[in-house]
Amino acid sequence: MPALKDLLQAEDITTLQSLQLFARTVVEGFTTGLHASPHKGFSVEFRQHRPYVQGDEIRRLDWKIFGRSDRFYIKEYDEETNLRATIVLDASGSMAYKGTAGISKFDYARKLAASIAYLLMSQQDAVGLITFDSKIREIIPNRTRITHLHQMLETLVKTEPGKETALAPVIESLVGRLKRRGMIILISDFFDDPVRLLQAIGVLRKKGHEVVVMQLWDRDELEFPFGRWARFENLENDEDFVQADPAAIRHRYLEVLANFQETLRVGLRRHQVDLLSLTTDESHSLALRQYLSLRMKV
Q1: Which phi and psi (to 5°) does residue 259 adopt?
Q2: In the chain, what are the domains?
Q3: Interatomic CA distance for residues 12 and 288, integer angstroms
Q4: What residues form DSSP beta bridges with 46?
Q5: Parallel, antiparallel, or unpaired for β 73-77 and 241-244?
Q6: Is 142 helix (H, G, I), strand (E, B) or coil?
Q7: Helices marked H in the chain — which ranges?
Q8: I need a labelling partner for 70 at 20 to 30 A (CA). Which of 9, 101, 154, 297 fits?
């Protein structure tokens, strides 16, 4: 488990200085700022009550309801920020893979998530975090305060990869959870059925959400450099493994990999979704800077 200070270091903050993550599509918010909004004017009208979850601001508790029901409820108001950005982080077993780069995909992913959260909060955007494997494991609501960033970092530190993944169903479930249009940043290796995965992402796009896909790889997964007979284990299921001569299966493996990558790339382009492919042997902050620099020019 990494230390809290390891997730967001001074060099990451320096690398990301002067960069911004703009929403390309119209988002629902009121504050004048970076992102285009369909609303004119400003509104903080009460909208509804919902159960309290860890991370909510205590000042929004409705004490009258608590007095009547002995339950904590939060008063929700219409949005007060230009953008609600939700980082959706894959914490399944395949993300635990650590090859010759010396860092697991999940350790790389949580550093990437921390940098993105910091960047968005520096823009005064409301950031939330969802972690998942076969189901959603943790939900941190969208907030703008710096104390909220600390809670997100603590959650990233304590989260460890689970077992099986169900990426498409999790994405489908977001449609009902995310009531207002915003940006959804998916961080995963996307080892799932690409057809169903793309269908789920398509539903999010039809609902007006902007989606950014950040796909993580270990260099071993891209190059398959193994030379001796080896036991290949399924990190999401302890019972599945195969012993094979890597030289005998390398060509077929790379062929399947190329087809998977192309299917995902073409499908995401069709849905007008950015795809950022990252390997764990490259600096996450430098790669993010390069992507954001290009995005700001488009």
Answers
A1: -65, -40
A2: 4-30+80-297 (3.40.50.410)
A3: 10
A4: 77
A5: unpaired
A6: strand
A7: 4-7, 10-16, 63-69, 105-122, 146-158, 167-177, 194-206, 219-223, 246-270, 284-297
A8: 154
Q: Please check whether residue 295 is in contact with residue 22, taking contact to mean a CB–CB distance below 8 angstroms.
A: yes
How far apart, in whole angstroms, are the C-alpha atoms of residue 128 and residue 178? Answer: 11
Tokens standing for 75?
Answer: 């008063």
Residue-wise pLDDT for 225-260, tens only, equals 877 766 666 666 666 666 767 778 889 989 999 999
Confidence of residue 55 (pLDDT cuts 50, 70, 90): low
Q: Which two tokens stand for residue 206?
A: 């039809």
CA distance 71 to 55: 16
Burial environment of residue 12 by CB neighbours within 10 A (0 to 12, 13 to 18, 19 or more): buried
Please give the Cα distance from 49 to 64 (Å, whole number): 12
Name the nearest CA neighbour of 159 among 178, 133, 190, 185: 133
Q: How many Å apart are CA 184 and CA 187, to the nearest integer?
A: 10
The better pLDDT of the pair 244, 105 is held by 105
The residue type found at 149 is L
What distance in Å separates the CA atoms of residue 96 and residue 163, rounded to the nearest whole number? 9
Contacts of residue 224, Cβ cutoff 8 Å, sequence gap at least 6: 246, 250, 253, 254
The answer to whether residue 44 scores a pLDDT higher than 60 is no
Neighbours of 16 (CB within 10 A): 21
